[in-house]
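ok new one. same drill as before - structure tokens go in, u give me an amino acid for every spot. 509 of them this time. try not to just spam alanines like last time pls lmao
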């Protein structure tokens, strides 16, 4: 009966097309909107979080004081914290405010004031205290929101769901010039300079549904490749471009400017400079959420096409490098950090990372089973090490969350994918794209027979995944919009799965 009730509660959240919430529609009118890119919050801690905005409009002074308020109520009668931040031209007039000393596990409301204007108000929350018993966690995963080829109806629906968290798993922007199929063109060409990336973020963040999703709950964000360059690996671009380090540092800087992440992450403008974005967050005693970075420290992809970097799809027999145990996707330091960071005293370990972890053999008509080298299939020894640690240390409730591949995948992760009797070590949910186009479904269907551990594989629809977690069960709802070319599209449920806390593996329904 308990299970029935939970199902029912999630079903009620599949809503028809919605108007935007009142706080977006009723933003103050003005000749020059100063909060034209909306507001955001992110990375909640038990006593604080990051509040973000970027001032807009012509003739902004080099430095502008921006005040922020955080209240326990929507009417801003009970103020919990307030302060002033300086928005400077050097940071594209972005603000990263960090309220502290708040009560844990509380919903808060926030807004900004600058240049005589007040922003819309957003809803955010603190995380539960690390030792607190927590009933449940409601969250969504999302990724891959290519602006020129689709609309953000999925965000419009997620914004209405009163989630605790959104985990954004990469491809917030795409660096490309506009597609010939564009519904709404990318401004400018391929992004190369800091100004290019700033303009691209501004264009994406002008979307009202994306603004509503940011205003509705705090996000945890990690990047994938398109925040810099398709298929880049560490300091190698996909076309082996010279001086890639300069471009990467511009892209990292613009990412920091536009994401609700800590002020202290602000990277120096040094070519090839690094920026640590991996870390973890405890949701009371319920879960530890590990955030990974699979781009910045990886070895370059194995067996690329001649004269190029980036991905390829190859049979194992044609690519000896795939078997090299020294190759790493996370880098040695991050691998070691993760191995020591698993929570053994909580029912769930959520691994928020960028791409598909399960082995997925593609059916190549000429060469048989082939593997895509940009995802974990390109780094099988590193995957084996990670899953080996989980098995050896009996890490409880490991659920791998991902994006990148523009398809909904649900899979059992095993020590040996070739052995049907090999134990299941962890469960994987890899969510489809918000708007980016997917592969032809026939290609995915043709590969299904090679991959019996994969329960679900659908590349033909856009959307996101919604989860409800308690100390017994994880329920997953695979959401899909009916038409990603329509900003007002309705949304539906493609499939549901659940996972029991002490029993890895996805169960249908
Ligand atoms: Fe993508
Ligand atoms: Ca990607």
């Amino acid at each position: 009966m308990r299970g029935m009730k939970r199902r029912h509660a999630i079903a009620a959240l599949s809503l028809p097309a919605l108007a935007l919430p009142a706080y977006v529609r009723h933003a103050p009118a003005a000749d020059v909107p100063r909060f034209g890119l909306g507001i955001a919050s992110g990375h909640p801690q038990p006593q604080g979080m990051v509040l973000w905005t970027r001032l807009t409009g012509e003739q902004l002074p080099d430095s502008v004081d921006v005040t922020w308020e955080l209240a326990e109520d929507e009417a801003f009668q009970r103020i919990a914290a307030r302060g002033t931040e300086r928005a400077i031209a050097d940071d594209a007039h972005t603000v990263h405010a960090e309220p502290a000393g708040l009560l844990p596990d509380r919903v808060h409301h926030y807004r900004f004031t600058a240049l005589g204007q007040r922003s819309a108000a957003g809803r955010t929350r603190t995380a539960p205290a690390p030792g607190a018993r927590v009933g449940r966690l409601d969250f969504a995963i999302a990724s891959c929101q290519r602006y020129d080829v689709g609309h953000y109806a999925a965000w419009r629906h997620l914004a209405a769901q009163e989630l605790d968290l959104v985990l954004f798993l990469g491809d917030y922007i795409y660096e490309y010039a506009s597609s010939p199929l564009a519904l709404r063109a990318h401004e400018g060409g391929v992004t190369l300079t800091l100004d290019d990336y700033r303009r691209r973020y501004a264009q994406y963040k002008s979307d009202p549904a994306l603004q509503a999703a940011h205003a509705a709950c705090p996000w945890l964000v990690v990047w994938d490749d398109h925040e810099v360059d398709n298929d880049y690996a560490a300091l190698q671009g996909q076309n082996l471009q010279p001086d890639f380090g300069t471009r990467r540092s511009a892209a990292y800087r613009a990412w920091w400017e536009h994401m609700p992440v800590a002020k202290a992450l602000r990277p120096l403008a040094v070519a090839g400079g690094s920026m640590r974005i991996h870390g973890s967050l405890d949701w009371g005693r319920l879960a530890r959420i590990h955030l990974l970075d699979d781009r910045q420290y990886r070895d370059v992809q194995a067996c690329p096409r001649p004269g190029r970097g980036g991905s390829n799809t190859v049979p194992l027999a044609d690519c000896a490098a795939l078997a090299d145990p020294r190759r790493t996707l996370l880098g040695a330091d991050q691998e070691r950090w993760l191995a020591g960071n698993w929570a053994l005293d909580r029912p769930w370990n959520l691994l928020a990372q960028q791409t598909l972890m399960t082995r997925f053999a593609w059916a190549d008509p000429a060469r048989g089973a082939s593997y895509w080298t940009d995802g974990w299939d390109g780094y099988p020894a590193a995957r084996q090490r990670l899953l080996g640690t989980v098995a050896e240390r009996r890490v409880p409730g490991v659920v791998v969350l991902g994006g990148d591949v523009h398809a909904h995948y649900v899979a059992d992760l095993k020590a040996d994918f070739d052995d049907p009797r090999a134990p299941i070590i962890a469960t994987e949910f890899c969510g489809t794209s918000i708007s980016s186009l997917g592969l032809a479904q026939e290609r995915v269907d043709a590969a299904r027979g090679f991959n019996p551990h994969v329960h679900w594989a659908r590349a033909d629809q856009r959307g996101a995944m919604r989860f409800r977690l308690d100390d017994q069960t994880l329920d997953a709802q695979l959401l899909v919009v009916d038409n990603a070319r329509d900003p007002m599209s309705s949304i539906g449920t493609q499939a549901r799965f659940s996972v029991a806390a002490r029993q890895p593996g996805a169960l249908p329904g």
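The longest strand covers residues 79-88. and btw The first helix runs from residue 2 to 11.
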